[in-house]
Structure formats: structure tokens, C-alpha cells
# Entry
Amino acid sequence: MVNGQPITEQLAVFKNELSIELGNILNYWMKNTPDEKFSGFVGRIDEENKVVAYSPKGSVLNARLLWSFSAAYNLDKNPEYIKYADRAYQYITQYIIDKEFGGVYWTVDYKGDQLDTKKQVYAIAFTIYGLSEYYLASSNNGAKSLAVDLYHLLVEKSYDQVNTGYLEAFTRDWQPVNDLRLSDKDANEKKTTNTHLHVLEAYTNLYRICPVKDLKLQIEQLIHNFLDHFIDPETGHLLLFFDEEWNSKSALVSYGHDIEATWLLQQAAEVISNNVLLGKIKAINISITEATIEGLDTDGGLWYEYENHQLIKQKHWWVQAEAMVGFYNSWQISGDDKYLAVAEKNWQYINAKILDKQYGEWLWGIDENGNPMKGEDKTGLWKCPYHNSRACIEIIKRINASTYEKN
# Structure
């Protein structure tokens, strides 16, 4: 029993609530975001749920839409979901793919014309991730071939043959670039936890449809990068920014990336069936989870970051989504019911504070006073249905597969 309730009952309620929320999330995107004039999906909707006309359209947004609708279709075969996955796929292949130099544009304008043509490895990884999931949903061989081609391109252009790992960004034609950052808040360094985590995630999904030796070796090397460099054994937190030779360049703590890494690393080792790495990851996952608990508020929400001995008292939507899955995973591998209690309390916090009861979808975040953060997108270059739909899908799948569900 957890919180006085039998686990079988608790998980049934949890699954039902997340199933309803998954439908709510995707219904919001189907209703509000298709761009009927210029094709694809609109580039931005503001906090008052108003479409911001002529906004840029991001490769990450479109790749995440492709993944979310494909993954939701793979979960329950709702025919509406595959229609929107098709829409995202068509837009990506027509406008986002750089047909001359390979890879994807960071952004195109509202009409689909090139805007920011810099090659961010992060964006290409998400495109591989979405295409792989779409292939599982559609059996579209073009999607699989494109995902494989993008994988080979990343290995050729971005992989550091001397030090291992992936360099962060390039010009359109794959030359060195001075500004490597994904966003203004990031450090301008050559290797980052964020990009490597999502390259790992992308390769793991690709391996499900293309289980070849060279890809498996790349996944194993990425896991070793985390074990050897990204995870700080003294604190249990992830180090976020590095130079080319793996010298750490930041002491910033990101609680969302900490807890997200726990289950993504484990999933990667499981998919490639490397039990040696899996054992190491499961052991270290609990240390990372315990470090993440430092960022939990008493209301069940997970704070954003810790920097320069100061807590950044914001609770972003994606951090909460990753907390749900990460703590649930830690409960599964440890059997310690306190982690399940944290996951469920986090969901209660999301339900109370993060769900936008007026317009739908999830708010960007909550400030230190418990109020919605101002001036943030409802949808945009970064605000996508990926973290929250994935959290719902992941926990639903885990409950479906659990012995508690079967008994």
C-alpha cells in the first residue's frame, strides 16, 4: 500500500487519469495548431491562446509533433492521431529537411522558406526520434530511410573521432560555427548534456526499427559518455556543459535533466540488451534520483535549476513531466514505495497548477509565488506536446505491462 491505498487501485486510477490527460493534450494540438493557410502547424500561440501570425516554425516543434502523434497512435491506434502524424511528416520532408547539405533547418518562416539554417545536432536528433516512431506507426519506408540517413550524417559530421561525443552545432554546410548555443540561456560550449541525452534517445528509437551493429556501438558509447563524464559521482547530478576534451564548464544543476536522464539511459541499455550497462545504470539511477529530491518542493512540484548557490524557483511544465516518469521508474527498479508516492504527488501538482483549465494544454510554468509565469508561449519553438504526452504514454505503458495490472 502507498498512502493507505492498495497499489492495484492506485495504479488503475493513475492510468485512467493520465489516459484522459493524454487525450486532452492531443485534442488541444489538433484543434488549435493546424495551419490551414500555409500548411503544417502554426509556429506560435501565446499565453492567452492567440495565434501569433507569421511566426517562425521550428524543426524541434515539428519533430516533436511527429513523435507525439505517432507514439499516441502506437499506444491506442486512434485513427485521428495518424492523420496528424502524417501532416507533421509531410511538412518536415517538404520544408524542414535541407535537401542540399543534409540535416534540418533550425527554423523556417511561416511560409516554409529557410530562416535560421544553422545545423543544431539537437534538432537533427529529434527528427530521427520522430521519424523512427512514425515508421513504427505507418510502416513508411521513406521515413525509415530518412532517419537512417540522418543518423549516418550525424556520425560523419558531428561525432568526435578523437574524444568521442557529439559536437553541438555547425553552419548550414557543416563548417565550424562560433555560436553553438541552443538558446540564449545556454553556455556556448562544444558538448552538452542536453544534446547528448537526446541523441541517445533518438538512436535508441532508431535501433528499434534498425537494429544494426554500428548503431548499437554508438549507443553504448553514448552511455559510457554519461557514466564517464556527464554524471558527477560526488553529487549525483549531471554536469551540463563541456569543452571538446570533456572538461566541465558549468556547475549549474538542472533537476529536470537529472531525472530525465535516469530513465532514458536505462531504456537505451534495455533496448540494445546490454545487461552489463543496464546493471550499472540501475545502480546509479537511484543516486541521481536521490540528488533530484533536493529540488522537490513540499507541494510535489520540482524546481527548475540550482545555480551559484541559489535555487531558481520556477516549476516548468517539462520538468514536472520528466519527474513523473523518472520517479515512477525509480520505484520500479528499487521497489521503494516512496518514489511512487513522489510520482503521484507530482501528478497531483501538475493537475492542480500546470494544467491550463481555461484554454487547455499545460502552462509553461509556475513562479515562486505559485502564479503562472508571464509572457511564455502556449506553443512555440520550445513549447511542444512531447514531454507531457510522453510522460502520459510512458506511465500508461508501464502500468499496462506491470504485474500489478495483470493480477
Q: What stands out?
A: The CA atoms of residues 14 and 298 lie 20 Å apart.
